[in-house]
Amino acid sequence: MTTIDLQQREIKPLRNTFDHVARLIGGDKPASRYQEATLGAQPTANFHYRPTWEPQYELFDASRSAIKLADWYVLRDPRQYYYATWTMARSRQQEAVETNYQFVDSRKLLGKLPDDVRAHACQVLMPLRHVAWAGNMNNCFIAAYGYGTALTAAATFHSMDHLGVAQYLTRLGLALDEPGVLEAGKNDWLSDPRWQVLRRHVEDMLVLKDPMEIFVAQNLALDGLLYPLIYGAFIDDHLATRGGTSIALLTGFMPEWHDESARWVDAVTKTAAAESPENKALITGWAKAWGNRAMAALTPVAEIALGSAGQAALAAVRADYNARCKKAGLEA
Amino acid sequence: MDTRVNPKKPGLKERYAAMTRGLSWEPSYQPRDKVFPFDKYEGIRIHDWNAFADPFRLTVDAYWKYQGEKEKKLYAVIEAFAQNHGELGVTDARYINALKLFIQGVTPLEYYAHRGFAHLARQFGGDGLRLACLYQSADELRHQQTETHAMSVYNKYFHGMHESNHWFDNVWYLSVPKSFFEDAFSGGPFEFLTAVSFSFEYVLTNLLFVPFMSGAAHNGDMSTVTFGFSAQSDESRHMTLGIECIKFMLEQDPANVPIVQRWIDKWFWRGYRLLTLVAMMQDYMLPKRVMSWKEAWEMYAEANGGALFADLARYGIRLPKGWADACEGKHHISHQAWNTFYNYGAAAAFHTWVPETEEMKWLSQKYPDSFDKFYRPRLEHYAERAAQGKRFYNGTLPMLCTTCQIPMLFTEPGDPRWIAYRETQHDGDTYHFCSDHCREIFEHEPQKYVQSWLPVHQIYQGHCFSPDADPTQPGFDPLGEVLRFYKFNLDHDNMDFEGSEDQRNFREWGGGQDAKEGQL
Amino acid sequence: MSNVFIAFQANEESRPIVDAILADNPQATAVHSPGLVKIDCPQRLVIKRESIEEQIGRSFDLQQLHINLVTLSGNIDEDDDQLTLSWTH
């Protein structure tokens, strides 16, 4: 009989992680993939040339924002997304959308929609493609000019997500009707009086220069009101009860994504506000001002969506938004 | 209720147009110039943004699907590598120094590319181009993060990686890649595109990728090989953006041609200089060598590049100004660079060494016109000294070229016995350069390059000391204090490979493919 | 005359793609090296979705090429049914 003596090699690692990660997690401990991918990744010192296009700033410059943080890496993403986990999560969601499209297509459910439901859905949803496009641009701004990888990597994912929403809405439009529906939606966006307050609101956000103000105006205020209004009050509570369940099925990504990313938005808001009374006042101010403007912009949209019930729906959404801001530590 | 026939599915091209170009609009409540302030910034004239066509036409959901699949496969390999102590399966612990150079000098460039393309993704006035830049920004973040994860295993067991980001921001040789990308990022978006997408991702990309990845394959580093293949599929899209954007700019207006030509001249040269570090890695740091830098240059620059510029001639574009000098340099730059790093091995965050006899033989064969005549004698002299216990370390600091920030180690084109020195005056000061081309880059934008944070200048000005460094104390050692500021683990991160802890540990842990064969 | 080329990771997924390309492009040649298969072709190379589907016996979306694609050269034209690389203008 042969005895096999398997000797395990005892190899002790010299360290657990990179020093620039260790400094931000309280010492040399085993670090998660999120931590290693994100913490301390951005260059911080000794920049060689000022941007010729903005010489008042360094290439990465925290002073682009009025928000002051001792360490921008406190703005961690509770979802702990790094590229791999983000793409894999979205890939699973994308498969679910495909499955839903196959379900709807095979049963020709969209063809069976009542004409008025179909038209109403297009009327409300098609102009929102352009709102999502602006959401993509605004989050690109944060990704480009924000400070610290914790914020900017998550903003990169968020900008791609917005583009995904815009493209899912486009796909829905193409599936619901002839391609002319996209053109009609764009015309409404450009010239229908009921959409102009929102378009002006969106264009005003596109010329902001403080990445954190853009974060609050776009990701907290506008989306925080728009998504519950459209995907909650309009699609789930209204369209679905009138034979439009297939539309809820095909837009399922949007409310799911909104709720998931709200955890990130709230964490960043809360952490930044908690750092100082000045930050808290700034963010509260932005949340209120941009929230009020968003309410004004969404008022005619709520009416297109829900008629006379629009105001009440919007008020309910605002009440939830106020509660959300309070929970994030903002002043009343 | 009407039952409608399902509408005919539009083809890929029509769907893609609806999914991209159709999403934007001309702003009217804010002037276009405020929403897109960079459109006219560099003098590049664009008459029709819609003429830019992204050939691959990926929608976001397709992007998520394919990238998600790639990541699943890649991380499975990274996990397996970590579990099986793959880091001990490389040929020789000297190889790991190539990876140190990679994480110190290449990974941060992926990060810069990520942020730079985010800038372009916001600022370009054309949707097709904006979106191609957005995907690239996400891809580059992918590369920075996957490289970090792949290297994480090595960092646990070997030195020279633990402070890679601090080193990137502070240490002398890393200002070469740092200044390269910051030069691109601080320029306008069209210049960035020419610098990165065209010059780097299209013209020179194979000269970065092939040496590192085939070096990894030949030296048993499966984790890096897998990363390399996985990243390369993203690179196909990046290369395509590079060639498409250059054609787009050149076709939009003849006035763009001289601007683009100047950028091609500048960025070919800065890219070529940056690749000095790769040349050195390829010829000196791979225990199992693949091809020489000279061979890689002939294949990927001279052959491929020649065909490319022949194709661009119809726009009025010619070969970059520095082309001839870059080709002449193929016989020399790897040897000259390694010599410098050997000299300054005390101040580099990776080990250096004299090549073994067999390795010198390979170098003789690969460099018949230069190695034995100019470089072997010096290396043999170093070996002799080391054998006598007097391994040579240069105790001073090198002069750096103001533009490329490489030490003045390059020689006159055509005569490698003479170091090439060039200088120019600006605002009462004298500036120094390694070549005519670096000087010309400076002279075109002196107000930019006078800002450079040249590490050697900064050391001499006393800016590279920890706050508690005290020059008045007896026994104050300036170089030692700089290394403390650099956060080096002395003798572990720097100095010769012979006698290093990396070497000892690798041996003790049973590393190396030959060693593995001897075990049960 | 310049070659166009396309290279894939050498694995089970890319094998039928390579076979389809070689069948449709008589002048194309394939070179195998560790982990990689590179296909060169003078002037023009076309990849057809239908041909790949014949090889694998299932439906195939041309964009799936991205998963195993390593590098390529030539001007690209792509639609739902084909991807062409060429140096002709």
Verbal overview:
The complex is a heterotrimer of chains A (332), B (520) and C (89). Chain A has 332 residues and is mainly α. Chain A has 13 helices and no strands. The model of chain B is unreliable at 1-7 and 515-520 (pLDDT under 50). Chain C has one domain: Monooxygenase component MmoB/DmpM (Phenol Hydroxylase P2 Protein, Alpha-Beta Complex). In chain C, β2 (29-33) and β3 form a beta hairpin. Chain C is globular. Chain C starts with a strand and ends with a strand. Chains in contact: A-B, B-C. The interface between B and C is medium-sized, with 26 and 22 residues.
What CATH architecture of chain A would you give? Orthogonal Bundle
Question: Quick one: which chains have the greatest interface?
Answer: A-B, 91 and 94 residues
Q: What pattern of helices and strands is seen along the backbone of chain C?
A: EHEEEHEEE
The CATH topology of chain A comes to: Ribonucleotide Reductase, subunit A
Q: What's the CATH architecture name of chain C?
A: Alpha-Beta Complex
The CATH C-level class name of chain A: Mainly Alpha
Q: Radius of gyration of chain A, rounded?
A: 23 Å
Distance between the termini of chain A: 80 Å
Overall pLDDT level of chain C: 89
The H-level CATH homologous superfamily of chain A, spelled out, is Ribonucleotide Reductase, subunit A
Mean pLDDT of chain A: 95
* Rg estimate of chain C, integer Å: 12 Å
Write down the overall geometry of chain A: globular
Query: How widely separated are the two ends of chain C?
Result: 13 Å
Unreliably modeled segments of chain A: 1-6
Strand order of the largest sheet of chain C: 2-3-1-5
Helix/strand class of chain C: alpha+beta
Task: Please estimate the helix content of chain C.
Answer: 10-25%
Counting copies of identical and different chains, the oligomeric state is heterotrimer
Number of helices of chain C: 2
